[in-house]
Specification:
With about 140 residues, the chain is α+β, with helices and mostly antiparallel strands. It contains 2 helices and 8 strands. The longest helix is centred in the last third of the chain and has 16 residues. It starts with 10 loop residues before the first strand and ends with a helix.
Amino acid sequence: MTAREYPDRPWVGIGCIVFRGEDVLLVRRGKPPRMGQWSLPGGAQHLGEEAEAAARRELREEAGVEVGPLALAIVIDAISEDEAGRAVYHYTIIDYAAEWVAGEAVAGDDVSAVAWVAPAEFAAYDLTPATHRAVAAAREALARG
């Protein structure tokens, strides 16, 4: 059991939905929870770290990319429960939206693969409904820009 399993409070996760044209940057998780699944880049916010700084750090660490201005896209609670209904994991995820500006996307720490994916190809990546909602919210956030 890790320190994040059966927490006494939610963990704050910071993510970034990165667009390069219509394509979205996806990462395959290399560690639990959701190991092996495709999702958006992100991770735990560090103590004393501002949320936007965490989003940029996670992008550099997981995919080696840089983005322009960040726009708040969506806040989602990701909760995994055991058979008894207790929260095994609880992350409150703050997702930002941004446009790619530099860096060749390569798999870094905590991920096993990265991909730029067109919306028409999302089905092949078995994304969660929350990920689909986040991408839609990110498009809207950037359009409001």
